[in-house]
Amino acid sequence: MARIKILVIDDEKLIGWSFKKEFDNKYFEVTTAESGEEGIKLFEKDFHDIVFLDNRLPGIQGLDVLKKLKQLRDDVYIIFMTAYGSIETAVEAMKMGAYEYINKPFNHDEIRILLQGIKDKIQLVHEVQLLCRDKPMDLTFNHIIGTSPSIRQAIQLAKRIATSKATTVLLLGESGTGKDIFASAIHNQSTRKDRPFVPINCATLPENLLESELFGHERGAFTGAHKMKKGLLEIADGGTVFLNEIGELPLNTQSKLLTVLEYKTFRRVGGNEDINVDVRIIAATNRDLEKAVKEGKFRLDLLYRLKVFQIELPPLRERREDIPLLIDHFVKFLAKKFGKDIKGVTRESLQLLEHYDWPGNVRELINVLERAVILENSEYIQLDSLPFELKEIPPPAKINDVENWLEIPEDGFSLYQVEKKIIELVLKKAGYNKSKAAKLLGITRDTLRYKIKKYKLL
């Protein structure tokens, strides 16, 4: 958490000096003013969280200063100080919004207890603000379904990174592959798990609002900025910030993010003061960032900084052995959710679901199963309950005698080489007509294009 700012407004220099000596530390930052006018100017320039305000001041008096400060920022904690034991004035200050009042002379232990209580309240407010946002599910690696080598390898790497001191993680994968689940799981298995997990989608906010969300802003930084606002980086201090769709981050914001990653500091929009934070940044994208760098849309230095720890999440079509497990899990979950007595899917439905290429990955599978569970009236999901687009691709012809067309050498072979060779042969047979080749292979045209690019065939 960033240091809490204290403003002491008192014409007695000794009071200001003693506050600085006793309480200016790693938790609090103390600024002093010797008049109400000076205090208001300092508060307008850099809003403070706590104000110790004397009643008797040269010029504008304490109650008038209190009124002005509350107009500028209603959530400021104002402690009203009086050396004259005037209960009437103290009660009036409380009615006007003062948090507490204390009588002079006071001791440092009294102030220390008061500050600790306010510090706890400020921290609680920050956490409530995060909970009021789209609260991330309390997900762990146990929520990731699959036994295929590719997904297990991704999980093992993510677990090692989670418990490390790495402050940057880059998740790569197509839409729907579970990048958000991995991000939450990494946070929940880290030493930061008791601090905030803050997700933000870089693609859904315009540049000016995105910067304000991330870094916060000072009062008057732009039209509508009537009050100072702390950004998510500042609120998430000690925790994790999940930057989804980081490939959509504007170049100007990329530069500021790089500063955060390298120096652990940033400035609020319209601000002049460096703010120190300790956060882990988990970034995710379905874009080719290296291509974006070549197109001038992404900073190369930021890419290098992000990809120190990189995890690639496999698409569902490349871990088809996990499809039955996913179907079984989500059918049971959805049946319970919608109050349906559905035990699973028929053999024909399973074959169709296993054969489909799932361009939307696990998220698309969940949506298809949710629709099917709602529509189905029997114990098992029938073909009629599955959407039409799944049935458009006919299953490939069955090969009854594999040994007649495929000879396995004693030393074995690479599956990568076999798939590449088969696609080469089919493309040649189809006269390099992609639609015809996709039909012969029993896959979609999009999948064929992906594999052609993967194996650099055309």
From TrEMBL:
Q: Tell me the PROSITE patterns matching this sequence.
A: RESPONSE_REGULATORY (PS50110), SIGMA54_INTERACT_1 (PS00675), SIGMA54_INTERACT_3 (PS00688), SIGMA54_INTERACT_4 (PS50045)
Q: Name one GO biological process term.
A: phosphorelay signal transduction system
Keyword Iron-sulfur applies: no
GO terms for molecular function, please? Answer: ATP binding; sequence-specific DNA binding
Keyword terms of this UniProt record = Activator, ATP-binding, DNA-binding, Nucleotide-binding, Phosphoprotein, Transcription, Transcription regulation
Q: Where is the Sigma-54 factor interaction domain?
A: 144-374
InterPro entries assigned = AAA+_ATPase (IPR003593), AAA_lid_NorR (IPR058031), CheY-like_superfamily (IPR011006), Homeodomain-like_sf (IPR009057), HTH_Fis (IPR002197), P-loop_NTPase (IPR027417), Sig_transdc_resp-reg_receiver (IPR001789), Sigma_54_int (IPR002078)
* Sites of 4-aspartylphosphate modification: D54
Q: Which Pfam families match?
A: AAA_lid_14 (PF25601), HTH_8 (PF02954), Response_reg (PF00072), Sigma54_activat (PF00158)
The UniProt record lists the Response regulatory domain at 5-119
Q: Can you say what this protein is called?
A: DNA-binding transcriptional response regulator, NtrC family, contains REC, AAA-type ATPase, and a Fis-type DNA-binding domains
The species is Caldithrix abyssi DSM 13497
